[in-house]
Amino acid sequence: MNLKGLDLRTDDPLLYPVLYWPVTAGQAPLPPLARERLNRYLRAGGLLVLDGRDGADPQPLVAGLDIPPLHPLPEKHVLTRSFYLLDALPGRLAGTTTWIAEGGDNDDVAPVLLGDADWAGAWAHEAQRGYLFAVIPGGAQQRELAYRFGVNLVIYALTGNYKGDQVHMNAILERLGR
Asked: Minimal CA–CA distance to 101: which of 152, 76, 66?
Protein backbone atom coordinates (compact mmCIF):
# COMPACT_ATOMS: atom_id res chain seq x y z
CA MET A 1 0.00 0.00 0.00
CA ASN A 2 1.28 3.42 -0.88
CA LEU A 3 0.20 6.14 1.53
CA LYS A 4 0.44 9.78 0.55
CA GLY A 5 1.17 12.56 2.97
CA LEU A 6 -0.80 15.71 2.29
CA ASP A 7 0.76 19.16 2.43
CA LEU A 8 -2.03 21.70 2.80
CA ARG A 9 0.27 24.43 1.48
CA THR A 10 0.55 22.73 -1.93
CA ASP A 11 -2.00 19.87 -2.15
CA ASP A 12 -5.74 20.23 -2.66
CA PRO A 13 -7.55 18.28 0.10
CA LEU A 14 -10.82 18.32 -1.91
CA LEU A 15 -9.61 15.21 -3.74
CA TYR A 16 -9.94 13.07 -0.60
CA PRO A 17 -13.16 12.05 1.19
CA VAL A 18 -11.29 11.44 4.46
CA LEU A 19 -8.19 13.12 5.85
CA TYR A 20 -6.46 11.22 8.64
CA TRP A 21 -4.18 13.39 10.76
CA PRO A 22 -1.96 11.62 13.29
CA VAL A 23 -1.39 14.21 16.02
CA THR A 24 1.88 14.17 17.93
CA ALA A 25 2.96 16.28 20.88
CA GLY A 26 4.30 19.69 20.02
CA GLN A 27 2.70 20.11 16.60
CA ALA A 28 2.44 23.74 15.61
CA PRO A 29 -0.96 25.28 14.84
CA LEU A 30 -1.97 25.43 11.19
CA PRO A 31 -0.70 28.36 9.17
CA PRO A 32 -3.46 30.61 7.74
CA LEU A 33 -3.36 29.16 4.18
CA ALA A 34 -3.62 25.59 5.47
CA ARG A 35 -6.47 26.56 7.82
CA GLU A 36 -8.30 28.24 4.92
CA ARG A 37 -7.92 25.17 2.69
CA LEU A 38 -9.03 22.86 5.49
CA ASN A 39 -12.11 25.00 6.20
CA ARG A 40 -13.01 24.87 2.49
CA TYR A 41 -12.56 21.07 2.60
CA LEU A 42 -14.85 20.75 5.63
CA ARG A 43 -17.52 23.01 4.06
CA ALA A 44 -17.41 20.83 0.92
CA GLY A 45 -18.27 17.72 2.95
CA GLY A 46 -14.88 16.24 3.78
CA LEU A 47 -14.23 14.32 6.99
CA LEU A 48 -11.17 15.21 9.08
CA VAL A 49 -10.04 12.52 11.53
CA LEU A 50 -7.59 13.79 14.15
CA ASP A 51 -5.94 10.96 16.09
CA GLY A 52 -3.71 11.72 19.05
CA ARG A 53 -0.63 9.60 19.73
CA ASP A 54 1.21 9.14 23.01
CA GLY A 55 -1.03 11.47 24.96
CA ALA A 56 -0.97 14.27 22.39
CA ASP A 57 -4.08 16.45 22.63
CA PRO A 58 -5.55 17.06 19.16
CA GLN A 59 -8.04 19.72 20.31
CA PRO A 60 -5.70 22.77 20.00
CA LEU A 61 -5.19 21.95 16.32
CA VAL A 62 -8.85 22.57 15.51
CA ALA A 63 -8.62 26.17 16.73
CA GLY A 64 -9.56 28.47 13.89
CA LEU A 65 -11.45 25.78 11.98
CA ASP A 66 -15.11 26.42 11.20
CA ILE A 67 -16.54 23.36 12.92
CA PRO A 68 -19.49 22.85 15.22
CA PRO A 69 -18.71 22.22 18.90
CA LEU A 70 -17.16 18.84 19.70
CA HIS A 71 -18.95 16.42 22.02
CA PRO A 72 -18.40 12.77 22.96
CA LEU A 73 -19.56 10.33 20.29
CA PRO A 74 -23.08 9.17 21.23
CA GLU A 75 -23.41 5.48 22.03
CA LYS A 76 -25.83 4.78 19.16
CA HIS A 77 -24.11 6.94 16.52
CA VAL A 78 -24.29 5.61 12.95
CA LEU A 79 -20.46 5.37 12.96
CA THR A 80 -20.77 2.50 15.44
CA ARG A 81 -22.98 0.52 13.06
CA SER A 82 -22.18 1.61 9.49
CA PHE A 83 -20.95 -1.96 8.82
CA TYR A 84 -19.81 -3.62 12.03
CA LEU A 85 -21.78 -3.20 15.24
CA LEU A 86 -19.33 -1.68 17.72
CA ASP A 87 -19.65 -0.74 21.38
CA ALA A 88 -16.23 0.94 21.46
CA LEU A 89 -13.71 2.41 19.02
CA PRO A 90 -10.32 1.29 20.38
CA GLY A 91 -7.06 1.74 18.56
CA ARG A 92 -3.64 1.05 20.00
CA LEU A 93 -5.18 2.36 23.23
CA ALA A 94 -8.54 1.28 24.64
CA GLY A 95 -10.94 3.18 26.86
CA THR A 96 -10.42 6.59 25.30
CA THR A 97 -13.12 9.09 24.37
CA THR A 98 -13.94 9.81 20.75
CA TRP A 99 -15.23 13.31 20.05
CA ILE A 100 -17.36 14.35 17.10
CA ALA A 101 -18.52 17.62 15.59
CA GLU A 102 -22.00 16.92 14.27
CA GLY A 103 -23.58 19.00 11.58
CA GLY A 104 -22.85 20.04 8.08
CA ASP A 105 -24.65 19.40 4.84
CA ASN A 106 -22.90 16.19 3.84
CA ASP A 107 -25.63 13.57 4.37
CA ASP A 108 -25.18 13.87 8.14
CA VAL A 109 -21.47 12.99 8.01
CA ALA A 110 -19.66 14.89 10.73
CA PRO A 111 -16.93 17.19 9.50
CA VAL A 112 -14.53 16.28 12.34
CA LEU A 113 -13.83 13.17 14.39
CA LEU A 114 -11.28 13.53 17.14
CA GLY A 115 -9.72 10.84 19.31
CA ASP A 116 -6.61 9.81 21.15
CA ALA A 117 -6.75 6.05 20.61
CA ASP A 118 -3.94 5.96 18.01
CA TRP A 119 -6.02 4.00 15.50
CA ALA A 120 -3.27 3.94 12.87
CA GLY A 121 -0.87 2.59 15.48
CA ALA A 122 -3.12 -0.44 15.89
CA TRP A 123 -3.33 -0.89 12.11
CA ALA A 124 0.42 -0.44 11.40
CA HIS A 125 1.87 -3.66 9.99
CA GLU A 126 4.86 -4.57 7.86
CA ALA A 127 5.28 -7.88 6.05
CA GLN A 128 8.77 -8.49 7.49
CA ARG A 129 8.26 -7.12 11.00
CA GLY A 130 4.60 -7.84 11.73
CA TYR A 131 2.62 -5.36 13.83
CA LEU A 132 4.69 -2.29 14.63
CA PHE A 133 3.02 -1.31 17.90
CA ALA A 134 1.53 -3.15 20.84
CA VAL A 135 -2.11 -2.55 21.64
CA ILE A 136 -2.85 -1.56 25.23
CA PRO A 137 -4.19 -3.33 27.27
CA GLY A 138 -3.71 -5.69 24.37
CA GLY A 139 -5.01 -8.70 22.64
CA ALA A 140 -6.00 -9.71 19.17
CA GLN A 141 -9.61 -8.74 19.86
CA GLN A 142 -8.68 -5.09 20.49
CA ARG A 143 -6.69 -4.94 17.25
CA GLU A 144 -9.60 -6.54 15.38
CA LEU A 145 -11.97 -3.92 16.79
CA ALA A 146 -9.58 -1.20 15.61
CA TYR A 147 -9.68 -2.64 12.09
CA ARG A 148 -13.47 -2.84 12.26
CA PHE A 149 -13.61 0.80 13.31
CA GLY A 150 -11.49 1.66 10.24
CA VAL A 151 -13.96 -0.14 7.97
CA ASN A 152 -16.88 1.65 9.64
CA LEU A 153 -15.09 4.98 9.29
CA VAL A 154 -14.58 4.63 5.54
CA ILE A 155 -18.14 3.43 4.95
CA TYR A 156 -19.50 6.27 7.09
CA ALA A 157 -17.44 8.84 5.18
CA LEU A 158 -18.55 7.51 1.80
CA THR A 159 -22.21 6.68 2.48
CA GLY A 160 -23.29 9.18 5.12
CA ASN A 161 -26.40 8.35 7.09
CA TYR A 162 -27.20 5.28 4.97
CA LYS A 163 -27.26 3.02 8.04
CA GLY A 164 -29.15 5.63 10.02
CA ASP A 165 -32.16 5.26 7.75
CA GLN A 166 -35.12 3.51 9.37
CA VAL A 167 -35.39 1.07 6.46
CA HIS A 168 -32.39 -0.80 7.96
CA MET A 169 -33.66 -0.81 11.54
CA ASN A 170 -35.17 -4.33 11.44
CA ALA A 171 -31.94 -5.88 10.17
CA ILE A 172 -29.88 -3.99 12.76
CA LEU A 173 -32.19 -5.04 15.61
CA GLU A 174 -32.11 -8.64 14.39
CA ARG A 175 -28.28 -8.60 14.42
CA LEU A 176 -28.37 -7.19 17.93
CA GLY A 177 -30.60 -10.09 19.00
CA ARG A 178 -33.61 -7.96 19.91
From this structure: 66
